[in-house]
Write a structure and sequence with these properties.
Radius of gyration: 24 Å
Shape: elongated
Largest sheet: 33 strands, parallel
Length: 402
């Protein structure tokens, strides 16, 4: 489409959005030709929520296609939009709403016409996405209220340099936000590159995910992802799930009312720092690569400065572990733990220091575990012979006496 016909209200709209309308000298228009705007809004194309999911879907998909083609920033303005099928995203997309509670895109159960419950999807054909994607300031509401594992609400795959911020997701079928390095299901890999580990350098921050099976997660070797200051609530399985991710950080997130707050498997270089969890069965659960089947091992896991309140284990490596599926070099330090034990069965070269308990929990290690333990306000139980006790491990101070 051509943008030359847009009116002089562009500058006012851009000022309202907080973005300058000035074009760069390189792309400045010749005298007498209207410059290309930096932002395109739904109202500029005559679009507004209609109350009809077919009409709204048609308008929103056209809007996504137009802003991707013209390489401009798109703003879906405030309102309650309805859709009856998946919205397809594009490489290089810059899409914003006007707030998590203001711009709402909903798939109602009575309207949904697809077997899968993916509401927004950046999928991969025969090329990877290298131009980056930015999504912010809107709300997605899914059609599957039963969390029956028929697709994530928002999915990005095979993409580099992405940002997802202040996106609210409710009632996902599986994940609320799912970033992966590869396709699954009936996907055929015709890409002439290493598709595993093909998603790099991303940020997911200040998002909220309510209900569904899993809140926020990465898979397929997604690498260098920062997951920061997000909140999950009411998931059936996990608040945050890294099924296979490398050099990824979980920082300052919160998870409540779920089975496992932070679930990690087949990982390398993961840092779980300064997060909180409450009303959960387990705070942090991790597994690892299988040394024989995968030809590698997981290493470099830091679990530091977190506050976990759980009904079962606060930190454990008991996810599908055995002598060939373990993590090496695990630092569990300076956490505040309430309710459950630190229970390790398979980890090697652990360093467990400076953790505080509530008087009900302990550090328990099996005979497979090796490393150092010391200076914790937690008692030791069933200590492995391969673990060196550095001393100064004591029962936690009675909370009433603090």
């Amino acid at each position: 489409m051509s943008l030359d016909s847009l009116t002089d209200t562009d500058n006012a709209l851009l000022a309202t959005a907080g973005v300058s309308s000035v074009t760069s000298p390189k792309h400045a228009a010749a005298p007498g030709i209207r410059p290309r705007p930096a932002i395109l809004t739904t109202s500029q194309l005559g679009m507004a929520p209609s109350g009809d999911p077919v009409t709204d879907h048609r308008h929103l998909q056209r809007f996504l296609d137009d802003i991707a083609t013209d390489r401009v920033v798109g703003v879906i303005e405030a309102g309650h939009w309805l859709v009856h099928r998946k919205l397809r995203l594009h490489d290089g997309l810059r899409l914003h709403g006007q707030g998590m509670t203001n711009t709402v895109i909903e798939a109602r159960p009575e309207d949904w016409l697809e077997d899968r419950y993916i509401l927004m999807h950046l999928d991969v054909g025969d090329i990877l996405h290298e131009s980056g994607v930015v999504l912010s300031d809107f709300c997605l509401i899914g059609a599957d209220k039963r969390a029956s594992d028929n697709g994530p609400l928002l999915r990005l795959e095979g993409v580099s340099d992405f940002l997802i911020e202040r996106v609210r997701c409710e009632d996902a079928s599986s994940y609320g936000i799912f970033v992966t390095g590869y396709g699954m299901g009936d996907f055929t890999n015709d890409i002439h590159s290493d598709f595993w580990n093909s998603t790099h350098r991303g940020v997911i921050r200040q998002c909220r995910v309510l209900r569904g099976q899993v809140g926020i997660g990465c898979e397929g070797g997604a690498q260098n992802v920062l997951i920061m200051a997000n909140h999950t609530d009411g998931q059936a399985l996990h608040g945050f799930r890294l099924a296979s991710a490398y050099d990824t950080q979980l920082i300052a997130n919160s998870a409540i009312n779920t089975r496992n707050a932070y679930w990690i498997d087949r990982h390398d270089g993961i840092h779980v720092l300064h997060n909180v969890a409450s009303q959960v069965e387990r705070g942090c659960v991790y597994g690892g690569f299988h040394q024989k089947r995968d030809g590698r091992i997981s290493r470099g896991l830091w679990i530091t400065g977190n506050r976990f309140t759980s009904s079962a284990a606060t930190i454990t490596d008991a996810y599908h572990g055995d002598a060939d599926k373990f993590t090496r070099v695990v630092k569990i330090k300076d956490n505040v733990l309430e309710g459950g034990h630190v229970r390790l069965l398979w980890s090697r070269q652990v360093d467990i220091q400076g953790n505080d308990g509530d008087g009900r929990n302990a550090i328990i290690t099996s005979h497979e575990v090796s490393g150092f333990i010391g200076n914790n306000f937690l008692r030791l139980r069933n200590t492995s012979d391969a673990v060196m006790d550095l001393g100064r491990n004591i029962d936690a101070i009675d909370p009433a006496a603090r």
